[in-house]
Protein: DUF4829 domain-containing protein
Organism: Pseudoxanthomonas mexicana
Amino acid sequence: MRVIARMLWVLGLLAVLAPAAAQSRLQRGKLQQVQDAYAASIRWGDFENAWQAVDPAYRAEHPMTELEFERYKQIQISGYRDLSTRGGPDGTVERAVELRVINKHTMAERTERYVERWRWDPEAKRWWLVVGMPDLWKGQ
């Protein structure tokens, strides 16, 4: 009798945990998709498309000006390398990346590091970048 009760308890626990695990896998899959699309947009110089991955609340508080978009046209990204990924505060996911940046006018290449932070939006069922676009000019 105890064995049956234990088995029922384990099955009940699995019934509760299985959907959560499936949801977690689904979220991770969506995160990978949005990160890949974002990285491709950055890598190919489509910064306006990359801007669409930024959290709408962040975009409203920090709107990009035409001048800022023009600055991105002055550079080319020659490399985008994922350095590490880890869980961040409040269920966010942080990804450290290395960008190789070429100034189109001088053809000088430099390396910049950037930490992306992604949050899951349960209403939109998608991930948003909550830190904005990489500042490749260090605020200058």
User: Anything to note?
Assistant: Confidence is low (pLDDT under 50) at residues 13-20. Residues 2-129 form a domain with the Nuclear Transport Factor 2; Chain: A, fold (CATH 3.10.450.50). The chain has four helices and four strands. The longest helix spans residues 2-43.
